[in-house]
Design brief:
2 copies of one chain form a homodimer. Chain A has a 6-stranded antiparallel β-sheet with strand order 3-4-5-13-8-11, with no helix packed on it. In chain A, strands 10-9-12 form a 3-stranded antiparallel β-sheet, with no helix packed on it. Chain A has a single domain, classed as Jelly Rolls, CATH 2.60.120.10. Chain A is built from 2 helices and 13 strands; from the N terminus they run βββαββββββββββα. The longest helix of chain A is centred in the N-terminal third of the chain and has 7 residues. Chain A has about 170 residues and is mainly beta. In chain A, about 40% of the residues are buried. Chains A and B meet through β1, β8, β10, β11 and β13 of A and β1, β8, β10, β11 and β13 of B. β1 of chain A pairs antiparallel with β11 of chain B.
């Protein structure tokens, strides 16, 4: 039998960098204009089109026995009165969990069930936040430094952004 | 529908403590005498019966949509010529992975497939070690400080120590 080989990635806690980088996914304001309320601030900020967040994804098979894992960085800043945040997502396989270990910064982890139950957890250095199956989740940087966290989810969980993009949260 | 509620645990990176503690599992030398070679050193060290390692387990349903997670601490030391190490285990559901993020200390992560293929990864602050499905795994503290790491695995994966207790590794 051929086994998938063990691999190491390394996060430099000071330089906020994953080695090897894996797949780097960057979200700029232009990728998420519908998620902020203040149209004028969006228009103004789009001239610079800042990176809102990015994540480094280790390349792992999309299979239920595997575990996807990534380092996410949400930058500090505001669009109008709203903090920089991630798009937020359900998993394609909805009954799968996710875990965030916060390495640096200060944030809020906003979660919602399909029945619109809400829950917000604090994110700070050393927080281990458990996002149980079914909860959609979004992270918000409420500090002045980058919010950096390590995330783990089941290999086949997948992402569903569509519902959240169209829905007003909270 | 009733959803499992999101929860936060917190690891103090300086004090090496999880809050809330969850379930604390302690392994003393007397729990693992068959794993070291030097019978005389074992007999001598059993007088004090030191804690070799312990882990703080967050209480999560044992279900395939969930993710178990824990903080493990392997203390520094030797029994005869051998470093303190964990018992090591396969998962009961063998085709499930595990991830270790090393927070402090220096170690070796020793892995083996059912076909006796071996692989060793370094553990140091910021190492993200991916243990793919099927690989048995054991951690060894090779430093002078506690080796501390955050581990995540599928909710229903379970542990199988028996095979490794009876088998000479490497």
């Amino acid at each position: 039998m051929r086994y998938f080989k063990p691999i190491n990635s390394n996060i430099d806690f000071k330089k906020i960098k994953l080695q090897p980088e894996g797949e780097v996914i960057i979200r700029k304001l232009s990728d998420m204009v519908d998620m902020y309320q203040n149209q004028e601030a969006i228009k103004e900020t789009l001239k610079e089109n800042p990176i809102i967040y990015k994540f480094y994804n280790v390349k792992i098979p999309e299979d239920k026995g595997h575990l996807q894992h990534c380092i996410s960085i949400v930058y500090p800043g505001k669009i109008g009165g709203e903090y920089y945040m991630t798009k937020g997502h359900f998993h394609k396989i909805k009954d799968t969990a996710e875990i965030y270990l916060t390495l640096k910064g200060r944030g809020k982890l906003v979660m919602q069930t399909p029945d619109n139950e809400c829950k917000i957890l604090e994110m700070k250095e050393g927080s281990i936040s458990y996002i149980p199956p079914y909860w959609a989740h979004r992270t918000i940087n409420i500090g002045k430094e980058p919010l950096i966290f390590f995330g783990v989810y089941r290999g086949d969980a997948g992402h569903n952004y569509g519902i959240i993009e169209k829905k007003v949260w909270l």
